[in-house]
């Protein structure tokens, strides 16, 4: 088969992986989707990387999905006296609205939006949660805060305020410039950081229109609370566990991950599990057993994709990290106890004709042990519906639109193929036979063909055909 793995692999591009030979090696090792991190990406370099990926796509004949991950607002401390302050447990420090300070026992915070929202009792986590202070007093716009953890705080360290929704847009001026660049180089999705509420996604959608998809990164408790509305406005979701782990209690993050995956699967929207998946492989040739279990757990839960960050961006063994992640996914998907193949439709859901067709295709694939489901699709909706229903066979998303094919490459179990539109039933079956054989199907094996009639019209999934590969007459 073209693909024996259903869950997709996302790899972040960075200095360790942005050369054309390494990008091709990563793709050959199993990468389905490349992530461009705009926090560190110069526009000229990301344009060059994009050209390299499209060259690999042309050479391999495989549509490759690429998304640009916007940085979002960065809430950081200012410049401290002597470039650092050693916090002592229980000691009180002054918080002031300044870019820098020469005062002892003072932490400058150059963010008026944050300072204006603070109240006594608020907890501030600093430096990715390594340090914590609690606001104890407010007076004339300045605050005092008690150190809850000892340690060294240096300049420009990140600030998180768990449970506090900040009046800050998810899009900074840098993000807007990066978004315009991402549209210019024709990425397939943008990943939106610092999403606090559905309105943040709407703001991005108003800028983008329907040109590309939006992946909303769930990093904050307020986004978890507003997940239904955020999901409705998004094309995909990322479980950004790094920031979630800072803003939420550690014991809550696995439960939040499971909840998000379940809601995304019910909605038929792809969900990516990200951050610290094989982190030790930044240095080591092998992951820890805990990391292997972490990847496996995301696959069991039915994530559409799992993501590598520093492992492929700056790690010493980028291709090995991809290869090992591929092995973990394949091994997990062979387990008959995996819930990844369960269909998660809700009992009170309103079904239409397309839903009935794809649900029937799922059941037929199971009963007849079909090797492939061929989904003819103009907009991608047919293949997306099949992906949501989780048939135990690979879905070939056959579309005439290269942009649709690339976006489909993020979806669970979908192998995207660029084909011409079909005009009649004989052509439908004949092309399906060719696609099946090109995808590794053997003569005599059964396949399912799903399409919309009249052919070539979007939103008309109403036809299902069972055929044997190599038997054009069906």
Structure notes:
The protein has 474 residues and is α/β, with parallel strands linked by helices. The chain folds into three domains: 8-72 and 169-332, Alpha-Beta Barrel (TIM Barrel), CATH 3.20.20.60; 81-160, Beta Barrel (M1 Pyruvate Kinase, Domain 3), CATH 2.40.33; 353-468, Pyruvate kinase, C-terminal domain (Pyruvate Kinase, Chain: A, domain 1, 3-Layer(aba) Sandwich). 36% of the residues lie in helices and 23% in strands. The chain has 16 helices and 21 strands. Helix 1 (20-29) packs parallel to helix 12 (318-333), helix 5 (198-208) runs parallel beside helix 7 (227-233) and helix 7 (227-233) crosses helix 9 (253-267). The longest helix has 18 residues, at 43-60. The protein is elongated.
- State the fourth-level CATH superfamily of the largest domain: Phosphoenolpyruvate-binding domains
- The quaternary organization reads as single chain
Distance between the termini: 21 Å
Q: What is the strand content?
A: 15-25%
Q: List low-confidence stretches.
A: none
Helix/strand structural class: alpha/beta
Mean pLDDT: 93
Overall spatial form: elongated
